[in-house]
Design a protein that fits this description.
The protein is an alpha/beta fold. The chain has 9 helices and 8 strands. Helix 4 (116-130) packs across helix 5. It comes from Streptomyces cylindrosporus.
Length: 298
């Protein structure tokens, strides 16, 4: 373990000028600027694409297994982020998995509250199936609010009797919008990225008039039977730690093949810090092995 690296990452997150609970007219450009400041390897290539009614980015990095695809859903509290801001993490996951990544540009709240973003993720995945990509060659992955949308999309797809992807990966998933978790308070002093007040503000914008206990809003409360193999990664410093732990318990009780990886002393979506944190690189490599193990080779 690299204690100095972990401490440096936590301090860097504290020092960042990003307040998830801030005003959107400032938060959105600040978020995009922060992500743009992180170098992407020179061999990463992107191309705009359409998945039915939804826009996205096709992302390639390194050698790929023909046909293997990662559908990637960015985070940002349902209100910030774009497919472009996801390129760094989506390309890293794709490289580790030997897959092409497709980042989905779903609609954001408050302009487009629930279920707009979820509908876009479902539509993008369905369009990928319609294009001829077999579900056994597809993984779906997301971080933070994107993890919420990944799980909700899987529930919606199952209920519509559409073929599910081969596996799913969620990083620091935000899956209980009731905020009924003990880590929300017990980790408040340790988490440098998220606060309860910020989460409440973004939840209210995403929900509009929807009950936070709706299973497609809080997929922790959904029936998870029939979900594909699931990998859950989270840091021990997160106010969302209990979201991940409870999700794993719920999935296990629903007979889902589920794997939990908790990394000590790291903050929300620590996987984005690959350049400076060994644990981030290890987590990405674990995701790659998981996707390689569960997706079909031609």
């Amino acid at each position: 373990m690299t204690r100095a690296q972990r401490q440096a990452v936590v301090q860097a997150v504290k020092d960042a000028p990003i307040d998830l609970g801030g005003e959107l007219e400032l938060l959105r450009p600040e978020f995009e600027a922060m992500v743009a400041s992180r170098a992407v390897p020179p061999d990463v290539a992107t191309a705009s694409m359409e998945l039915g009614p939804v826009s996205g980015l096709r992302i390639s990095a390194g050698a790929t297994v023909p046909g293997r695809t990662v559908v990637f859903v960015h985070g940002g509290g349902f209100v910030v982020g774009t497919a472009a801001s996801a390129v760094g993490l989506a390309s890293a996951v794709g490289r580790a998995a030997g897959a092409e990544s497709i980042a989905v540009d779903y609609r954001l709240a408050p302009e487009h509250p629930f279920p707009a973003g979820l509908d876009d993720v479902v539509a993008a995945y369905a369009a990928l199936l319609d294009s001829g990509t077999p579900p056994a060659s597809i993984a779906i992955a997301g971080e933070s609010a994107g993890g919420n949308l990944v799980l909700a999309a899987l529930v919606a797809l199952r209920d519509r009797r559409l073929p599910l992807p081969a596996c799913a990966v969620v990083m620091s998933p935000f899956v209980d919008l009731t905020l009924d978790t003990s880590s929300r308070s017990s980790k408040a002093e340790l988490d440098p990225a998220l606060s309860t007040s910020a989460l409440r503000r973004r939840i209210s914008e995403y929900l509009a008039d929807t009950d936070p206990r709706h299973p497609l809003v809080s997929p922790l409360l959904a029936d998870l039977r029939g979900m594909p193999p699931l990998l859950v990664q989270v840091g021990s410093y997160e106010v969302l730690l209990d979201d991940a732990l409870a999700l794993v318990r719920r999935a296990a009780h629903a007979d889902v093949d589920v794997t939990l990886e908790v990394t000590a002393g790291v903050p929300h979506v620590f996987q984005t810090r690959m350049a400076v944190l060994e644990e981030a690189g290890a987590a990405i490599e674990s995701i790659g092995r998981f996707i390689d193990r569960h997706t079909q080779r031609p």
